[in-house]
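Run log, item B.
One chain of 226 residues. Sequence copied directly from the ordering sheet:
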Amino acid sequence: MSNHYQTLQIDCTATQAEIKQAYRRLAKRFHPDSQQPSGNHETIIRINAAYEVLGDPQQRKSYDKQLYIQAQNHQTSVINTATKPRKPRQHGSQIDAELNQWLSQVYQPVNSILNQILDAFQMEVDELSADPFDDELMAGFQGYVETSKEVLEKAQSLFRSIPNPANVAGVAAHLYYSLNHVEDGLEDLNFFTLNYEDSYLHTGQELFRIADQLQQEAAARMRNFL
């Protein structure tokens, strides 16, 4: 498990205000859309993931507990290394079988659901733009949001159903963050349907744009791997 505190370049005793300040500083520095030479998409993904956990007091409390358990397990592992028997290496056929299972039961259906949500989005926005205050058009857009939330839950359940093989960890990470951005985007779009505040629509659009980019990068990595 990567250390989110190190990612945000803060101490584990940092206050919530210090965590937020560190996140803003790093996001501004590494965001790929910025004009800074340090802009890096991989880095901003890790920064966003770290802040998603540490920025929420409850998630941070749970994460701190995981770090403690991890540290204890590491100490035990170091002590027992000399006497613990090694696991047999996996044969190539076993690795291929695990990859094929993950592709068919996780990657492909999750990818299909993401396409279903993201591909329909612009069409839904275009239809609504004719008159955002038309009750029938807004009801249709709200139906899209609700349906998308339902199928997204299925995608998230599928993603958690089987651990990804280690050799496609990068693909799985991009897919995971794409799902997270879609979830956040749908929340903003739902707020938009409730109060007609354009800022929620624009935020949802931006989150969907990032989700689409992450999905495309996952697909590119998979093509390179295969």
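Observations after the first pass:
- Residues 76-84 have pLDDT under 50 and may be disordered.
- Residues 92-225 form one domain.
Flagged for discussion on Thursday.
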